[in-house]
Amino acid sequence: MVVELAKRSGRDLRRLLRRLNLVTGRCFDDNEFTSLLRSINIKFGNDYWLLGWREHKISTSSSLFVLSLIDRYNREYVVKIYVSIGIISMVLPANQLNLSDEISGITMLINGNTANLSGRILCITNVKVKEVP
């Protein structure tokens, strides 16, 4: 019975991650990713609570985000999200920009007639969930 409850709880957490689109293959800009993590407490605060996260640099092009969560039964989980990192940087004529589009997470500096865009893009390569005994 206890083993079955643990399996179900792990499945529920994986389902929550899928609902947030934190699945392998998805890409986010830096701001979007951290906003998504912060939204766990707002959207799913009755079932799960995000205690915090930490980014560990694996290499120049990949990182690991380690999240600590607890569920409504006070069971603690560690979620490891492996990401590959890409950098976007470009210079465009300012009149070419459509500022009604969402550009969160990307730094934009407009200098006269040119716009410099730069930011970090995170693409999820793997997600692992583990209950802390």
Brief rundown of the structure:
The protein is α+β, with helices and mostly antiparallel strands. It has helices at 2-19, 30-44; strands at residues 27-29, 48-59, 62-71, 76-93, 106-111, 114-131. Strands 1, 2, 3, 4, 5 and 6 form a 6-stranded antiparallel beta sheet that branches.
The helix/strand class is alpha+beta
CA-CA gap between termini: 16 Å
How many DSSP-defined strands?
Answer: 6
Order of helices and strands: HEHEEEEE
Q: Report the principal-axis shape.
A: elongated
Radius of gyration: 18 Å
Mean pLDDT over the full residue set: 86
Number of helices: 2
CATH architecture term: 2-Layer Sandwich
> What is the CATH third-level topology name?
Double Stranded RNA Binding Domain
Uncertain runs are 1-6
Could you give a short account of the major beta sheet? 6 strands, antiparallel
Query: What is the strand content?
Result: over 45%
User: How many domains in all?
Assistant: 1
CATH classification class:
Alpha Beta
Question: Care to describe what's here?
Answer:
The protein is of the alpha+beta class and 133 residues long. The chain has a single domain (1-86, 120-132), classed as Double Stranded RNA Binding Domain (2-Layer Sandwich), CATH 3.30.160. The protein has two helices and six strands. Strands 1, 2, 3, 4, 5 and 6 form a six-stranded antiparallel beta sheet that branches. Strand 5 (106-111) and strand 6 form a beta hairpin. It is elongated, with a radius of gyration of 18 Å. The chain starts with a helix and ends with a strand.
